[in-house]
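Hello again, I could really use a second opinion on something today. I've dropped the whole record in just underneath, so have a look.
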Amino acid sequence: MAFLFIRCSTLQYTEGAAKLKLRGPMGWLSFPRVLCFNVPMVFTYRRTIRFADTDAAGVVFFPNYFAICHEAYEESLASDGIELKTFFSEQGVVVPISKSQAEYLRPLTCGDKVTVTLSPSVLGPDSYAIDYEVVRLGHPDKLAARVRTEHMCVSSRARGRHDLPAAIAAWIKHHSA
């Protein structure tokens, strides 16, 4: 869960009042007493394109977009406290990618600075999707690719479908749009 904080210069609360008043750059704003906004936290991964990412033509080799996005996915899980080294083995769940697709909008070359933003969403009780946007940084920033992966949770013992582990469900909720 994330919180939205509003910068204000003056806070005015009257005991028993039904509203809280904030004075900001646009004047006074009134809010109910309880200020709680559930705002998803967009995860952004920053990376430099390496020579090893590119092909003989000097542009990122198409399957490497998936590898770069998967790096962002792993970093996002780790940033939410999911220890990748032990998580899947301790949960008894594997999470293979069941479907993937990519739209390549402009080439990336060695040395390009990029950001990868990801937005997960639940597909069913045992599956989820992650939508990625790969943006080449510059003046102006340019969208280079859109990537989507769909994941299915499978019991590592029974090899059948398995509900989303609680930590994965919480991660999805934290980062979904």
Observations:
- Residues 1-20, 33-38 have pLDDT under 50 and may be disordered.
- The beta strands are 10-13, 19-24, 27-32, 43-48, 93-94, 97-104, 113-124, 127-136, 142-152, 154-155.
